[in-house]
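Re: the request from the purification team.
They wanted to know what the chain is likely to look like in 3D before they choose a buffer screen. I agreed to run a prediction and write the result into the notebook, where they can find it.
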Amino acid sequence: MTTYLMAGGGTAGHVNPLLAVAREIREREADATILFVGTSEGLESRLVPSAGFEFHVIRRLPFPRRPDKRAWRFLRGWRPTVAQVERLISSRGVDVVFGVGGYVAAPAYAAARRAGIPLVIHEANARPGLSNVWAARFASRVATAVRGTRLRRATWVGMPLRPEIATLNVHDGRAAACQRWGLSPGVPVLLVTGGSLGARRINQTVDRLASHILAAGWNILHITGERDSGLVASGSPGHVVLDYCDNMDDALAAASLVVSRAGSSTLAEITALGIPSVLVPYASGNGEQALNAAPVVEAGGATLIRDAQLTAETLWAVLEPLLADEEARTAMGAAAATVGTREGAARTVDLIGEALLQSHSMTP
């Protein structure tokens, strides 16, 4: 029986791939022991136990960007946190550590190295984070979601997707998905989403265009995000506004076209399902969303609008011809599907298996 330690969290973009890999492991090995480490503040503290996996809390240790009080707190907390994970590895006989980056994963990476057990990492973004750049120097295997990501010895596997997305039949599920929100299956649906927190610029811009979109013969399924609750009002038939959607598989099944940010998880889902999109990459951070979007845009599966250039006029200039041209949308969807994959979880678990086999072959 193999014991796996999964490390990462904070956001859904980290937690969902971890859970997808854990579920794939469990599907292959019913007797496997799967443990998670994360913080009490992150989404993992809720999502992991609710998925039926054992969860262990470690200290929250954000990487310091400058020599200040946070740097001192990081240094003071680093060794005890790594030691805590080491004790977990030893007491539970962990065979391999798998992590998806971020400050939550870094202590587990260090503990795996100190314990001399295999470490496999997965990087979701085209521009890798600091912890994965560091861990790629000594990890047994390095996996990426975006082709061309610059990490040492990286293998492209795609994004590990939740089973309900990876197995989704968009064509067969569309009618039921539309009916869930009272939308007619015979009318195309524009799905608007900015992630779990929302994207205010997208929300406000689409709100200004709603009457035009409806007049073009489309329905709108608009997920504003909890932060923008109440910002967009739904007062017209065929225009559904949600603060949060806990069944994105139905939302994606309903969608004929998507307007969204370019987060790695969102891109992985719409490309795996072959859905055309208009992408507005988030401008903050280190520019990873624009880099994430680049392969999809280059393949012809999406049109990109820079956040600073997003207005009702620029969005409508892109949307209007797409809403009227089903053939163009079909071609875009097919192009998007060439970039994505539904096999990310399976390929990642294959890499973990390779690391374990290599470790066993080296054991005297």
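For the purification team: The chain has 14 helices and 13 strands.
Please add any questions underneath this entry.
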